[in-house]
Amino acid sequence: MNLSWHLYLMAFLYIVAGLNHFRKPAMYIKIIPPVFKNPKLINILSGAAELIFGILLLFHPTTNLAAWGIIALLIAVFPANLYMFQNKKASFGLPKWILFVRLPLQIVLIFWAYQYTL
Protein backbone atom coordinates (compact mmCIF):
# COMPACT_ATOMS: atom_id res chain seq x y z
CA MET A 1 0.00 0.00 0.00
CA ASN A 2 1.32 3.39 -1.00
CA LEU A 3 1.29 6.16 1.60
CA SER A 4 0.19 8.99 -0.66
CA TRP A 5 -0.38 12.65 0.14
CA HIS A 6 -4.14 12.12 0.46
CA LEU A 7 -3.59 9.46 3.10
CA TYR A 8 -1.37 11.90 5.01
CA LEU A 9 -4.07 14.55 4.60
CA MET A 10 -6.74 12.19 5.94
CA ALA A 11 -4.54 11.23 8.89
CA PHE A 12 -3.83 14.89 9.65
CA LEU A 13 -7.53 15.80 9.55
CA TYR A 14 -8.53 13.00 11.92
CA ILE A 15 -5.65 13.73 14.30
CA VAL A 16 -6.56 17.42 14.46
CA ALA A 17 -10.28 16.63 14.82
CA GLY A 18 -9.51 14.13 17.58
CA LEU A 19 -7.38 16.63 19.48
CA ASN A 20 -10.11 19.23 19.09
CA HIS A 21 -12.52 17.02 21.06
CA PHE A 22 -10.25 17.64 24.05
CA ARG A 23 -9.53 21.31 23.32
CA LYS A 24 -13.18 22.31 22.84
CA PRO A 25 -15.35 19.54 24.31
CA ALA A 26 -18.45 21.74 24.68
CA MET A 27 -18.62 22.13 20.91
CA TYR A 28 -18.92 18.37 20.42
CA ILE A 29 -21.07 17.69 23.47
CA LYS A 30 -23.60 20.22 22.14
CA ILE A 31 -24.24 18.14 19.00
CA ILE A 32 -24.67 14.77 20.71
CA PRO A 33 -28.37 13.90 20.60
CA PRO A 34 -29.97 13.84 24.06
CA VAL A 35 -31.07 10.23 23.53
CA PHE A 36 -27.44 9.26 24.13
CA LYS A 37 -26.54 9.24 27.79
CA ASN A 38 -23.19 10.51 29.09
CA PRO A 39 -22.25 12.88 26.24
CA LYS A 40 -18.94 13.72 27.96
CA LEU A 41 -17.85 10.10 27.72
CA ILE A 42 -19.05 9.87 24.12
CA ASN A 43 -17.01 12.96 23.28
CA ILE A 44 -13.89 11.51 24.90
CA LEU A 45 -14.30 8.14 23.18
CA SER A 46 -15.00 9.60 19.74
CA GLY A 47 -12.14 12.07 20.06
CA ALA A 48 -9.76 9.34 21.16
CA ALA A 49 -10.93 7.14 18.28
CA GLU A 50 -10.31 9.90 15.74
CA LEU A 51 -6.88 10.56 17.18
CA ILE A 52 -5.86 6.90 17.36
CA PHE A 53 -7.22 5.99 13.92
CA GLY A 54 -5.55 9.07 12.44
CA ILE A 55 -2.19 7.97 13.84
CA LEU A 56 -2.71 4.34 12.82
CA LEU A 57 -3.39 5.44 9.23
CA LEU A 58 0.26 6.46 9.00
CA PHE A 59 1.70 2.99 9.58
CA HIS A 60 1.45 0.48 6.77
CA PRO A 61 0.62 -2.53 9.00
CA THR A 62 -2.32 -0.68 10.61
CA THR A 63 -3.64 1.45 7.73
CA ASN A 64 -6.35 -1.08 6.82
CA LEU A 65 -7.53 -1.44 10.43
CA ALA A 66 -7.56 2.34 10.89
CA ALA A 67 -9.56 2.87 7.70
CA TRP A 68 -12.21 0.36 8.85
CA GLY A 69 -12.25 2.07 12.24
CA ILE A 70 -12.83 5.44 10.60
CA ILE A 71 -15.68 4.00 8.54
CA ALA A 72 -17.30 2.63 11.71
CA LEU A 73 -16.74 5.95 13.48
CA LEU A 74 -18.30 7.94 10.63
CA ILE A 75 -21.37 5.72 10.78
CA ALA A 76 -21.49 6.02 14.59
CA VAL A 77 -21.33 9.83 14.59
CA PHE A 78 -23.94 10.26 11.86
CA PRO A 79 -26.71 10.83 14.45
CA ALA A 80 -24.81 13.93 15.65
CA ASN A 81 -24.78 15.36 12.12
CA LEU A 82 -28.48 14.61 11.75
CA TYR A 83 -29.18 16.20 15.15
CA MET A 84 -27.31 19.35 14.07
CA PHE A 85 -29.48 19.51 10.94
CA GLN A 86 -32.74 18.99 12.83
CA ASN A 87 -32.12 21.17 15.90
CA LYS A 88 -31.36 24.87 15.73
CA LYS A 89 -29.72 24.89 19.17
CA ALA A 90 -27.10 22.38 17.95
CA SER A 91 -26.49 24.07 14.59
CA PHE A 92 -24.01 26.75 15.71
CA GLY A 93 -26.04 29.18 13.61
CA LEU A 94 -24.90 27.55 10.38
CA PRO A 95 -27.25 27.86 7.40
CA LYS A 96 -29.58 24.90 6.99
CA TRP A 97 -28.16 24.12 3.52
CA ILE A 98 -24.64 23.65 4.92
CA LEU A 99 -25.96 21.30 7.57
CA PHE A 100 -27.84 19.40 4.87
CA VAL A 101 -24.73 19.10 2.67
CA ARG A 102 -22.84 17.65 5.64
CA LEU A 103 -25.13 14.63 5.68
CA PRO A 104 -24.12 13.11 2.29
CA LEU A 105 -20.55 14.29 2.91
CA GLN A 106 -20.34 11.37 5.34
CA ILE A 107 -20.66 9.04 2.35
CA VAL A 108 -17.76 10.79 0.63
CA LEU A 109 -15.63 10.47 3.78
CA ILE A 110 -16.55 6.79 4.09
CA PHE A 111 -15.59 6.22 0.45
CA TRP A 112 -12.28 8.05 1.04
CA ALA A 113 -11.47 5.82 4.01
CA TYR A 114 -12.59 2.72 2.11
CA GLN A 115 -9.83 3.33 -0.44
CA TYR A 116 -7.37 2.24 2.26
CA THR A 117 -9.14 -1.02 3.12
CA LEU A 118 -8.37 -2.65 -0.22
Describe this structure as you would to a colleague.
This protein has 118 residues and is mainly α. It has helices at residues 5-23, 25-29, 39-56, 60-76, 78-86, 96-114. It is globular and about 40 Å long.
Write down the overall geometry.
globular
Calculate the terminal CA-CA distance, rounded to whole Å: 9 Å
What is the string of SSEs from the N terminus onward?
A: HHHHHH
Indicate the mean pLDDT. Answer: 94
* Classification by helices and strands: mainly alpha
- Helix fraction? over 70%
Low-confidence stretches: none
Rg, nearest Å: 14 Å
Largest sheet: none
Strand residues, percent: under 5%
Q: Quaternary state, please?
A: single chain
Please report the total strand number as a whole number: 0
Number of helices: 6
Q: What are the main properties of this structure?
A:
single chain; 118 residues; mainly alpha; 0% strand
Please outline the helices and strands.
Layout lengths: L4 H19 L1 H5 L9 H18 L3 H17 L1 H9 L9 H19 L4
Brief characterization of the structure:
It is built from 6 helices and no strands. With 118 residues, it is an all-alpha fold.
